[in-house]
Specification:
With about 260 residues, the protein is mainly alpha-helical. It has 13 helices and three strands. The protein folds into three domains: about 35 residues, no CATH class; about 100 residues, no CATH class; about 90 residues, no CATH class. About 10% of the residues have low confidence.
Length: about 260
């Protein structure tokens, strides 16, 4: 009888890569270098790509929408200091982190130059202190994930503190009408839904038509709609997914429009 070999003893070779599990899980694995153990599972080239400063920065931001905001602020920072203008954001992040780790003082000087410029804009009333704070958050997170050592307490000590409450206000009826008259058909359902429910912009990333349940009366008339918010989020808020009820007068138009928007 032929000896069993390969995958499942069926006498053929498996096309999957073999991993030395003894190295990973044996009691003596403590003496092994962690990078060598990971390299036995992940190819060397992919290992460096995954742990690059840019990819580590992307990994640290859970929301795709938040990541785009952070990248835009970091791009603004690079543009101001004139760093690799015209290059892709990934290359700019990786090269800046590499240079910043070699010359820590160079990174600090450029960060202070940029923050001083934005601080002066706050003093002139061009931007708010909250906007400046968001720049600090983005650059700080990138430096942390890129292993660039920065003493942030020293740098941020001279920056204005943002207001705890924004000066935002609810839009007027006339402003809402002007927004709803925008020719793009997708704008109206977005405006009506957010005004009626109060959901945040990030909720649209997880909202699907199956999360919306129209509530009708005895005669089949539309009374309200129930929306399950953040249903697809693997890490919802501490309160969990929320149920929001839209009143009939507010949702009579957008319920049909929402279906069109989510399915187009």
């Amino acid at each position: 009888m032929m000896p069993a070999s390969g995958a499942g003893g069926r006498r053929f070779k498996s096309d999957q890569p073999h991993v030395n599990l003894y190295i990973l899980f044996s009691p003596t694995s403590i003496g092994y270098n962690s990078k060598e153990m990971l390299s036995s599972v992940i190819p060397e080239q992919n290992f460096h790509d995954i742990t690059s400063p840019y990819n580590m920065f992307k990994y640290s931001v859970r929301s795709e929408l938040t990541r785009r905001y952070y990248e835009r602020r970091i791009r603004t920072f690079f543009d101001y200091i004139g760093f690799l203008t015209g290059s892709e954001i990934e290359k700019r992040c990786n090269v800046f982190a590499k240079k910043g780790k070699r010359n820590n003082n160079w990174a600090i000087v450029n960060i202070i130059r940029f923050l001083q410029y934005e601080k002066e804009r706050v003093e002139r009333g061009e931007i708010t202190a909250a906007t400046l704070s968001n720049f600090v958050k983005s650059i700080k997170l990138f430096c942390e994930m890129g292993d660039i050592t920065i003493h942030w307490k020293k740098i941020t000590r001279g920056l204005p503190r943002p207001r705890l409450a924004a000066n935002d206000r609810a839009p007027t009826i006339e402003e809402i009408r002007q927004l709803a008259e925008y020719p793009d058909r997708r704008i109206k359902p977005i405006i009506y839904t957010m005004l009626s429910s109060g959901i945040r912009l990030g909720a649209w990333d997880y909202l699907k038509w199956k999360h919306i349940t129209p509530l009708t009366g005895v005669a089949g008339e539309l009374l309200a709609a129930r929306i399950l918010v953040y249903a697809g989020d693997p890490q919802p808020t501490k309160l969990g997914s929320c149920i929001i009820i839209l009143l009939s007068m507010q949702v009579a138009v957008p319920v049909g429009c929402i279906k069109f928007y989510l399915e187009c």
